[in-house]
């Protein structure tokens, strides 16, 4: 069977690393800024076309984050958050994403006067609608921002306890810049989440800008069960063995890595090393409205340089299914769909 766009689109993909705020298209950004009467900075691009062009010239993570946080300002109402997530789920339908575990950054909204309840209600309405109308399942993961104080993160987690217990928020993560922000520093945030007594899940961005040591810290000190990015894990042979033996999923983001100058090209990402060592990974879009490519685009970019067989794609897709935070019944349905695609049915 030929590995082409049709085959890659049909694969029952699971996306584990996408920031809902990072799916805010320039078109929607300007539309909401006007509707909500939000003034953008004087030096901000004045049209969606100019903003798209600026997004082609990110110099690194910090440069991108400036635009990311400006974009967040236009999201005000519950409907804004629902519409944002719904647009993403429509892209999932186009790309063959069958399950998505999506991040959001509550501190960036609560700090400007938007209630956590507004965020959660908007996002969960879109999630329910996606399952009902599109057959796409999703989980909501609350990320805490490294560049803000640990105390702020603890307060945010404590405020979210009721959403953990209700299942509306399925897990917590850690994101934003890694520079001089080792995971151990944020241990109190994860302890506060565990104090809720809820059965939530844990992940963290580590090993993108930061070294392999940050991956170890996230695993040992924060006791996360998944690593977001984790590309620098390949520098540590012992870590590769550990990731393989524990079946710890890395949520790789190829196009993002290139756009943010983590690597020069997709070909520089050590996919082969991860495959050879049995390290499970999924392929994800990260902040697709800013980086110019949703999930399927990332699959296509990987295929263009790796030229994988259907067997390897099946292995990668299966790793994404097994690493998802869904019940066995949902996993089995996705496994069966994968088998059908691989058999050309």
Low-pLDDT segments: none
Q: Please identify the structural class as seen in this structure.
A: alpha/beta
Compute the gyration radius: what is it?
Answer: 19 Å
Terminal-residue CA separation: 11 Å
Order of helices and strands: HEHHHHEHHEHHEHEHEHEHHEHHHH
- The residue-averaged pLDDT reads 97
SS element count, helices: 18
Can you describe what's shown?
Helix 11 (212-220) links the parallel strand 5 and strand 6. Helices cover 51% and strands 13% of the residues. Helix 2 (26-35) packs across helix 3 (48-55), helix 5 (78-95) runs parallel beside helix 7 (116-134) and helix 8 (150-159) packs parallel to helix 10 (187-194). The chain has 345 residues and is α/β, with parallel strands linked by helices. An eight-stranded parallel beta sheet has the order 1-2-3-4-5-6-7-8.
In short:
This protein has 345 residues and is α/β, with parallel strands linked by helices. The chain has helices at 5-10, 26-35, 48-55, 61-72, 78-95, 107-110, 116-134, 150-159, 161-166, 187-194, 212-220, 237-246, 254-259, 271-276, 288-291, 295-306, 310-322, 328-342, and strands at 13-19, 97-104, 137-145, 171-175, 201-206, 226-229, 249-252, 281-283. It is globular.
Name the descriptors.
8 strands, globular, eight-stranded parallel β-sheet, single chain, 18 helices, 345 residues, alpha/beta
